[in-house]
């Protein structure tokens, strides 16, 4: 086989293989769509330089789900709709006690929520406050 023909053959095989890689995924079936609609979508965004530990447990009791959120990071959690208790604590464990709290929440199925972790020493954009941008005397 001559070189131009070989080149065209290789190019056709490559393009054909790439076309197979870009085919769309099949649409989820009715069961998958119903399961997704029964879940709430929680995005936790850490606006601080602390690592945070979250424990999300059903308010009626049961095992909690533990997650860590890295400094300036985010985490996505999908949960069944319902009532929960969220324990959030800044790490390390010896951090100021005011950086830990327990909150009851109700998450509706099929809804999306944003949970921002911040402190009084973080500005709206999440950057630590400096003497230059603090207000007051």
Tell me about this structure.
- The chain has 137 residues and is α+β, with helices and mostly antiparallel strands.
- The chain has a domain at 39-121: Immunoglobulins (Immunoglobulin-like, Sandwich), CATH 2.60.40.10.
- It has two helices and seven strands, in the order H-H-E-E-E-E-E-E-E.
- The strands form two sheets. The chain has a four-stranded antiparallel sheet with strand order 3-2-5-6, with no helix packed on it.
- The chain starts with a helix and ends in a 20-residue tail after the last strand.
- The relative contact order is 0.19.
Looking at this protein, list some descriptive labels:
137 residues; 20% helix; three-stranded mixed β-sheet; Immunoglobulin-like; alpha+beta; four-stranded antiparallel β-sheet
